[in-house]
Prior knowledge:
Largest sheet: 8 strands, mixed
Mean pLDDT: 96
CATH architecture of the largest domain: 3-Layer(bba) Sandwich
Distance between the termini: 24 Å
Amino acid sequence: MTTARRVLVIGGGSAGNAATILLRRAGLAVDLIEARPDWNATTGSGITLQGNALRVLRELGVWEQVKASGFPFVSLGVTAPDGTLLFEFDDVKTGGEDLPATVGMQRPQLQQILIAAVRASDATVRLGTTAEILDQDAEGVSVRFSDGTEGYYHLVIGADGLGSATRAAIGITDKPEPIGMAIWRTPAPRPASVIRTDLTFDGPAYTAGYCPTSDSTLYAYVVEDARDRATIPPESYADEMRRLTGQYGGVWPEITKHITDPAKINYTWYDRLLVEGSWHRGRVVLVGDAVHCCPPTLAQGAAMSLEDALVLAELLTSGRDWDDELFQAFYERRIPRVRTVVDASVQLTQWQLDRVRDADTAGLIGRSLNSLKALP
């Protein structure tokens, strides 16, 4: 194994960007391709980053920028529909005592920080580009790019998300399965009283919540039964979200009055995916949402993707051969941790769907998050 080997990373989200930064730091030649010409630099409202995600971001060398851009907090509140605080509890510090329990930030801001780190790594980046896997041999993978050029790589990392074309191309037939819920998300100005995530598990929605994302911003969300997207005209998104949020008290009236631009609102179904057995075929290995996703009930989606990149990069730069044994070791190291998150996140959702009033919600969240304190 020499550092002259070439790696292709397909997908420029959190997992792909992180893998690129780490492998370039180790001296590997890395090409990163991203299908979207804008590199998703302006897409999304907000993101909740728990301590174990922050731990990886610190390893990437971007923690100081994240801290300066986001809003750290250490507790979680649960409120009644009228806004009355029912209880507040300390959030679990999954990244260790030297990091905040949670940082909320604007998703585009995180992406821009990671993009800058990829650029600084001197990786080769091609935007608006996709790849087709042509063939594999014992040493690598031949690919054809959407611009007609071809290349040969000693490893291809598929970090191309939930609808991963790479996953399908290597014969993994698993697909995301809808859970039965959907979430409305939007950015909004932050009222001064919003200093942490507060959640309401009652009222017209399954969940209504908000998370501060900077000194001046937050993102708000409401969860309802999944509806056929074709029945919801995009121009009605603001009206639909206001219909739900307008029935909550506390700071919600202040948030709701800013829900006016349908273009800023995202409507997404909850899905479940967990690929079992292995996450590779030959010299193609999958990471992040391409192999696992779940409802955001534990706010661990980005953390699991970032951890995938960290663990894979550690193994690839350990001096071991890049063979089935190494890639299976990657899967076996990740699957128990990822399964804990996926199963718990889906269970929390199912309890809501089934209207289970005496569910051990707090206990399950606490046990799941405490299990993530250990290094990935």
